[in-house]
Amino acid sequence: MPARSGFTDVLFARDRVRRRGEGRYQVRLRPNERALVGDLVGQLREQLVASTDDPSVRRLFPPAYADDPERDAGYQVLTRDELLEQRLAALDVVERTLDGGDLDAGEMTAWMGTLNSLRLVLGTRLDVDEELPDLDPADPQAPAYAVYEYLGWLLSQVVDALGSDLPPPSSDARRS
After folding, report:
1. Which of 48, 71, 85, 158 could lock 65 by a disulfide, CB 3.0 to 4.6 Å apart?
2. Cβ distance 91 to 124 under 8 Å?
């Protein structure tokens, strides 16, 4: 039985992210969703503060020079602290805005980055590839895959909401 059935069909039935006007958005999560996202954000913060070398968070700090470890080490020294500060600041925004209210584009961008980070870390831990496994609901990994799928669903809503404020493609871009 696929991981997305029953519970997740009901869960995914309603939008949680809305555009409220130009550059204004709202994220309205149910109480259990707020608790889940808040818990995941807290776990990610703890992991990032403890170590950015853990294999599950390494994808958040990708190598710039995969074929040149020496150059990449120099790059990581120059950028890792700044990337870490940006990720922690985005986590702060999500925690502060979990209860809803109007958000601006910067806050929605923080939501987008945080949800993407959560998916990357969870996907790494689950060793996700392009195809999700067809899990029985009794499988011990089924809840983690459901969370992974939920995060992707929520992320797609954030991207759609932010994308609605983008200008239409120019005629030059359409010809390319």
Report:
1. 71
2. no
Tell me the pLDDT tens digit for each residue of 75-89: 888 888 999 999 999
Residue 159 in contact with residue 112, Cβ under 8 Å? Answer: yes
Q: In a 3-state reduction of DSSP, which class is residue 135?
A: coil
Report the largest interatomic distance among the alpha carbons of the chain, rounded to a whole angstrom. 52
pTM: 0.84
Q: Which of 94, 100, 90 is nearest to 37 (CA)?
A: 94
Alpha-carbon span 117 to 159, nearest angstrom: 14
CB atoms within 10 A of CB 59: 13
Tokens at 154, concatenated? 């929520």
168: left (phi over 0), alpha (psi -120 to 50) or beta: beta
Distance CA 36, CA 34 (A): 5
pLDDT at 36: 98
Are 155 and 123 contacting, i.e. CB atoms less than 8 angstroms apart? no
